[in-house]
Specification:
This protein has about 180 residues and is mainly alpha-helical. It contains 7 helices and 2 strands, in the order H-E-E-H-H-H-H-H-H. It has a two-stranded antiparallel ribbon. A hairpin with a 5-residue loop joins strand 1 and strand 2. The longest helix is centred in the C-terminal third of the chain and has 30 residues. The radius of gyration is 17 Å and the shape is globular.
Length: about 180
């Protein structure tokens, strides 16, 4: 690859990463308030990795989380800052990074076959749920008092399972269609 082509390729990578960080921000603003708000953020994460692949998709998720960490209002409810990440639902936001990493690992070791992509999204979602639930329990205990696992699952996971599976299905279908334009 020539130097000009390599530079152009890197520029496209940066643009795609930035575009999907913005997509995740817009997805987070579409929100229904709750203990952990109902948003389309997970859809944005699945789309980023589904369209851009593991490396660039994970970078987009990382950029999104870092933008929020420094105070840009990219999280649900137009919030941002370290306080949003350290709060009750911050673990789910950090969990997006681990979801993307899991999806990237599946891609790296098992390829991008349809069944692998769907399973990677489901496993990534489970990793996000696990990380976020533990974080929620710790943050909630610090601010309010101890809470049981089943209560937290009832607040933060069970209501999200069906919507998140729908987001996975939509992200899988749409990412396949959009991917051919993002090469």
């Amino acid at each position: 690859m020539t130097t000009a082509a390599a530079t152009r390729s890197k520029t496209y990578d940066l643009v795609y990463i930035a575009v999907f960080a913005v997509v995740m921000a817009v997805c987070s603003w579409i929100s229904i308030p709750a203990q952990v708000p109902f948003t389309l953020q997970t859809f944005g994460v699945f789309m980023a990795v589904g369209v851009l692949g593991g490396k660039r998709g994970t970078m987009a998720v990382l950029v999104y989380v870092l933008l929020g960490a420094v105070g840009v209002p990219v999280f649900a409810g137009f919030s941002g800052g370290i306080g949003a990440l350290l709060g009750n639902s911050g673990g789910y936001i950090i969990g997006f990074i681990f979801s993307a990493l899991v999806m990237w690992a599946f891609e790296k070791f098992l390829g991008r076959k349809p069944v692998v992509q769907i399973i990677s999204m489901i496993v990534g979602l489970l990793v996000c749920y696990a990380f976020g639930t533990v974080w929620f329990m710790v943050a909630y205990a610090r601010s309010t008092g101890a809470v049981g696992l089943m209560a937290v699952l009832g607040w933060c996971v069970f209501p999200f399972i069906i919507p998140d599976l729908i987001k996975i299905a939509l992200a899988y279908v749409l990412s396949g269609k959009v991917r051919k334009y993002a090469r």
